[in-house]
Automatic annotation (TrEMBL):
Biological process per Gene Ontology, one example term: rRNA processing
Comp. bias intervals (Polar residues): 369-379
Notes on the domains: The Q motif is unique to and characteristic of the DEAD box family of RNA helicases and controls ATP binding and hydrolysis.
Motif (Q motif): 194-222
Lineage, highest ranks first: Eukaryota, Fungi, Dikarya, Ascomycota, Pezizomycotina
Annotated region (Disordered), positions in chain: 1-50, 70-126, 139-186, 341-379, 706-765
Name recorded for this polypeptide: ATP-dependent RNA helicase
Bias type Acidic residues, positions: 347-358, 756-765
Annotated SMART domains: DEXDc, HELICc
Length: 765
């Protein structure tokens, strides 16, 4: 078997995944359940059709499992469903209305047995508390209602008691407050819990999840899935450890806004896709005024790059198989086609055409009407797109914004970051949010990233405002899993001093030809530098094993390279920060920062392309030169933090030997401290000397001017060449001397020539 096939997220292979980083205490006790299969009866597991490696289903307690009691939730469709199944009746519940959901795959008999899985026990509050502590799961309410203003009677009393009129006290600013229920009210400790109350996930969705080989939720899934499925008023009515708990399931009205910061590769995609699909299935059961379910897009997922959009789309498709939920990628071509269709249908309806054909982006503080055109609109349930394309689609009125109630921002920090700060999409994302908020009465946003700064948190809190000014805004909950803004402790981080640019090339060559563990990603600061490095190392590996990917390549080429890397045909992919976020190739073993990333967050995301899903053995090598000292410091801090965390984990596992002394900490002793302004500049431009096409014409960022194209091209190698600086200087000097001597000779000849001419020309007699 080609080991590189294991890379592929979309390879279709059904591998048993390594356990996610959930510790022994987090996972249910590993009692492999004796299934009926051993006694020859059809089992829940066989019903899942996971023939090769069925997921191990664990349960918390045999008592809860054996009771298999129906869970009664008065008045809810879920209680009806559980009662019916407990009575052995076929599950006819249509609260999930999709025609293709549930039983559409024609294995009705086996489907029934799915419901035979007795409900696994939910963790008791004390167990949940222990787990939350262990995984450092923290919930914070980011937008608590302001304290109530004093009543008129209180004010009177105060006036009487004080002789001198005191100035009215300033209302206290709303502070972030920990939820009463911090840590989370409940945790999902096994995906099997999803099949029963309080979650009662769609059967089909549950099967799709298990068929991907997921059995134990990762910490972020453990905490966020209950929050998103159950809403903020989830209230366990029983804390008894032996009985399944009945709950109030609130799906729409009490749903929350969520801001999640969880480490790279921790499974955030499933954490938002699963509740989203479940909600869409439920939503489809809600009939509109005309007695039919409302058609049109219901959710938008935004991601910063086309590559990530494609990946989310694929994940969505896999989870949505057989549910009838439709997912679409909004591309330029799709928007263009729909725009045309819209125009045609509007003409046919005899409508007057407007210039822009859609919505105007709102100015700050302005609300915007949504497009009312009756032309062609996106009909898929979930739209996945980039911020720029989303705004483009909105402008062209091809989305019915009134049906959209969910917005998901993947890599939220970069999506919300101001465009000014370099690489951000704040303008587009916030415009889209304003439009959606003004068009849809009930919209919730969830934001996800491995790095969230406090300024982004503050911005997120300001986004959530009440629809009605007299009510309090829907809650925005921040979920933190593990330490905030940290890199993975289970991968190796190496900071290698390479002295000069040619030193870096030499170091990379040594790496490629000695201890190279493919597949690898090699990151550079700019497209010209990535292109120059690609040309340099193209022949250092067997033909076709090195590839180049950046944003200036045509879409087709980008897709082709991505596919080749997924298949394992490419061993070393030279790229820019285009691939630093979100993209998931499970088998990436090595990440090389040929150019130091401009910020700690940049490092965390690049490094996170390895060690995905808790995989050990990944390596990150960062080359730095004497000119990089300032940009290296924040990165050394991140690495030192990861080293400390690794030591803590190793300390916990005594039999794994002594922790190793990290390399980053001693570096911090002599690296210069970096001022805030400098950090900002580095984040925006990276190391200036590497930006071949820029010249600084004065102090400050605004005065950076682009060089002419010709001038940039003349630089050719963009500083990446095997020839050392000393050698270049020597060659330059030689060339200069040669040219000077030629010039001298020419001048002499000219002089001699003119003198000679004077002598030789004898004139006409
Ligand atoms: N419960 C699980 N058990 C095992 N593997 C999982 C589980 N959930 C997700 N994974 C796998 O973990 C990998 C990383 O998932 P994902 O891409 O969602 O990470 P992420 O948190 O979004 O990372 P990033 O911050 O880099 O975007 C994927 O290969 C995914 O299939």
């Amino acid at each position: 078997m080609d080991i590189f096939r294991l890379l592929s997220r979309s390879s279709g292979l059904q591998h048993k995944r390594p356990k996610p980083p959930v510790s022994a205490a987090a996972a249910p006790p590993s009692k492999r359940r004796k299934t009926k299969a051993s006694t020859g009866t059809t089992t829940a597991l066989s019903a899942l059709s996971l023939t090769e490696s069925p997921p191990e289903i664990d349960f918390f307690a045999a008592s809860a499992v054996s009771t298999g009691k129906a869970i009664s939730i008065p008045g809810s469709s879920l209680s009806r469903r559980r009662k019916r199944s407990a009575n052995g009746a076929a599950d006819q519940d249509r609260s999930y209305s999709s025609s293709s959901d549930e039983d559409s795959d024609g294995d009705g008999g086996e489907q029934k047995s799915l419901l035979d899985i007795p409900p696994p026990r939910l963790p008791t509050p004390s167990e949940a508390h222990k787990l939350a502590k262990e995984h450092k799961l923290k919930l914070t309410l980011m937008n608590p209602p302001p304290p109530p203003s004093p009543s008129p009677s209180d004010q009177k009393k105060r006036k009487k008691s004080s002789k001198k009129p005191k100035p009215e006290p300033e209302p206290e600013p709303a502070k972030k407050s920990k939820l009463v229920d911090t840590p989370p009210p409940t945790l999902l400790t096994s995906f099997t819990q999803l099949r029963t109350a309080p979650y009662s996930l769609s059967k089909r969705l549950y099967r799709n999840l298990l068929s991907q080989g997921y059995d134990t939720p990762t910490p972020v899934q453990m905490a966020s899935i209950p929050l998103l499925l159950l809403g903020h008023e989830y209230t366990p009515s029983s804390s008894s450890s032996n009985e399944p708990q009945s709950t109030t399931r609130i799906r729409a009205e009490k749903s929350i806004n969520l801001l999640t910061c969880a480490q790279t590769g921790s499974g955030k995609t499933i954490a938002y896709l699963l509740p989203l699909l479940d909600w869409i299935l439920w939503k489809r059961g809600q009939l509109g005024k005309d007695g039919k379910p409302k058609a049109g897009a219901k959710a938008i997922i935004v991601a910063p790059t086309r590559e990530l959009v494609g990946q989310i789309y694929n994940e969505g498709l896999k989870l949505a198989i057989g549910t009838g939920v439709r997912v679409v990628v909004l591309k330029k071509a799709v928007v263009g086609k729909m725009k045309k269709e819209k125009k045609l249908s509007e003409e046919a309806e005899g409508e007057e055409e407007t210039d822009d054909g859609g919505v105007d982006l709102p100015k700050e503080g302005e609300s915007t009407p949504h497009p009312t055109g009756t032309g062609s609109k996106v009909k898929s349930d979930i739209v996945v797109t980039t911020p720029t394309m989303l705004v483009h689609a909105m402008k062209n009125g091809i989305l019915d914004l009134t049906t959209i109630h969910r917005l998901i921002l993947d890599e939220a920090d970069i999506l919300l970051e101001s465009n000014e700060k370099g690489g951000g999409f704040g303008e587009e994302t916030l415009s889209a949010w304003q439009i959606l908020k003004s068009a849809s009465s009930d919209i919730r946003v969830s934001m996800w990233s491995a790095t969230i700064s406090s300024s982004i948190e503050a911005l997120a809190a300001t986004m959530i405002t009440p629809t009605n000014p007299t009510t309090s805004p829907p809650p925005l909950i921040r979920l933190l899993t593990g330490l905030k803004n940290t890199s993975l402790p289970h991968i190796t981080h190496t900071l290698t001093y390479a002295s000069t640019e040619p030193g870096k090339l030499l170091a990379l060559r040594t790496l490629l030809t000695t201890s190279f563990p493919p597949p690898a990603l090699i990151f550079l600061q700019t497209v010209p530098r990535a292109t120059a490095l690609y040309r340099e190392i193209k022949y250092d590996l067997p033909p076709g094993r090195v590839a180049l990917l950046h944003a200036q390549l045509p879409d087709r080429e980008r897709e082709r390279v991505m596919e080749s890397f997924r298949k394992g045909e490419v061993w070393a992919l030279v790229t820019t920060d285009l691939l630093s976020r979100g993209v998931d190739w499970r088998g990436v073993k090595l990440v090389v920062n040929y150019d130091v990333p401009g910020s700690a967050a940049g490092y965390i995301h690049r490094a996170g392309r390895t060690g995905r899903g808790g995989r050990e053995g990944g390596e990150v090598v960062t080359f730095w030169t004497s000119g990089d000292a300032k940009v290296v410091r924040p990165i050394a801090e991140v690495v030192a933090q990861a080293e400390r965390e690794r030591e803590r984990l190793v300390d916990g596992k005594k039999d794994e030997g002594e922790p190793k002394e990290g390399s980053a900490r001693w570096l911090l002793d002599f690296l210069p401290k970096v001022k805030k302004e400098e950090k900002k500049r580095l984040k925006k431009f990276g190391v200036e000397s590497r930006n071949a096409r820029r010249i600084v014409v004065g102090k400050g960022m605004e005065k950076v001017k682009m060089k002419g194209k010709e001038e940039a091209n003349r630089e050719g190698t963009h500083g990446i060449s095997t020839v050392s600086g000393w050698e270049k200087q020597r060659v330059d000097r030689l060339r200069g001397a040669r040219e000077a001597s030629k010039r001298k000779k020419r001048e002499e000849e000219e002089r001699n020539g003119s003198e000679g001419d004077g002598e030789e020309f004898m004139g006409f007699d």
